[in-house]
Amino acid sequence: MSRSMVLLLFLVLVVGGGLAIGYIALPGEWYASLVKPSFNPPNWLFAPVWTVLYVIIALAGWRVWDRGLASPQQFWWAQLLFNFLWSPSFFGLQQMGLALVVIVLLLISIIGFIKVSWRTERTSAILFLPYLAWVAFATLLNASLYWLNPAG
């Protein structure tokens, strides 16, 4: 299989999977009724930010796969799993505490990916820096929502 075909598969998996999960686990009335922190971004911002991040995630995953780097691949697959579990945990099950655990694990796996790929595939590590920043912010947001809405 050609490198460009594999890249396309990574893009379809990550962008397509992320958008599908986002569509299945829409925020809805429950999320609208939550008390939000003052730094909560507007709802319209999430889809474009995640779409860009999903492209970056796919590119980084393809790069470490293309170079046969096992350790970064393990962290890459772990972060994808936790990423895809977060929306169903938070919006689908409406379990902010469970979602907080999932997003902390996501944050740890992103940091792990950056750390293990820094020497062998620095471009992929750098690609993950905006993702790290957004997920760190999202972790703070998840924790704040959990704190402000104790029944969740």
TrEMBL record:
Q: Keywords, A to Z?
A: Membrane, Receptor, Transmembrane, Transmembrane helix
Listed InterPro entries: TspO/MBR-related_sf (IPR038330), TspO_MBR (IPR004307)
Ribonucleoprotein is among the record's keywords: no
Main location class: membrane
User: Where does the UniProt annotation locate this protein?
Assistant: Membrane
TM stretches of this protein: 44-62, 74-91, 97-114, 126-148
Q: Which domain of life is it from?
A: Bacteria
Q: How does it sit in the membrane?
A: Multi-pass membrane protein
Q: Which family does it belong to?
A: Belongs to the TspO/BZRP family.
Q: What is this protein called?
A: Benzodiazapine receptor
